[in-house]
Amino acid sequence: MRIGYNPHKDQVLEKSEFTHQVVMPVYIPNQEGYFKNSLSILKLTLESLFKTAHNRTFFSIVNNGSCDAVVDYLEYLYKKGSIQELIHTTNIGKLNAILKGLVGNTIELVTITDADVLFASGWQLETAKVFKTFPKVGVVGIVPQFNMFKSHCGNVIYDNLFNKNFKFLPIKSPKALALFYKSIGWDETYNKDFLKYGLGIENKEVNVLLGSGHFVATYKKQQFETVKSYLGYKLGGNTEGYLDSAALEFDYWRVTTQENYAFHMGNVLEDWMSEATINNSDKDVVISGFSERQKMNSISYFIKNKLFYKLVLNKRFSKLFYSWKKLPKQMISNYNSVKAE
After folding, report:
1. More confident residue, 322 or 271
2. Domain that includes residue 295, residue range
3. CA distances from 173 to 29, 203, 260, 325 (A)
4. Higher pLDDT pick, 206 / 281
5. Residue 9: inside a domain, yes or no?
6. DSSP letters spanning 254-287
């Protein structure tokens, strides 16, 4: 039986004061073996976010089946008010956990990040500058990586093919780039030319490199207006492809900041992680009001992201393309090979 009228019925929700959301899935089932240092690394990740993000940032943490110690820590942060949303679930897979965090708000930007990322000062402001400078950008990574332009970048190459500012740019933080590949277990037998130049777009306001990685990136929320309700993999499978392709449906570009603004920590705690100096000099700067786009038609999608892209990545044509876009001559012959020759 119901008596009376719910006073909240038919009330319009007030517009959110938040302009930027951070969604982080957390899966730490125990504190042994592979996960021995994971809680300590999670704490470093969140502390770096709290220090560097402005006060209109909405933190959504999705506990994806973690152990009691992790649950207690996250509950403490939520009750303290450090995070705005805490979702608990059994292990439903990484992307399904992300999808839970994406819905329920209209915040225009969302950063999706792993739980082992050390954020550096200025990442949020630089990300916003990229969105403002390049209205067609829909995804901004903050950690440069090798060959990013070879994944889901057909449209940005197509759109800028005759742009004189579209060319190979110097890597600003080669040490940070090398550290990233060390953090994911690579040895140093890779082609060192990738530490020197990356394909990007030069602009008087801010430069960008083409493409974006998966472990931390910021998206225009418009891409997720209609999200899938479920993907059938806990990790891998088609999960990463879903996040990659969402931008292309709106003809959004995927790019990364030229400077490195975060560090991948992995699952092993090292001294440099806790010794890193992080300040909050940009916390008071809030940029919002980013442009949106309509979905592109299927013919344009096919031409840009399938037909044209296949031609650009063709081994024979790509070397002409590298030369045209100002890659140093001595690097051209081996630039298609990640391994040193």
Report:
1. 322
2. 20-332
3. 35, 18, 6, 21
4. 206
5. no
6. EEEESS--EEE-TTS--HHHHH-----TTTT---
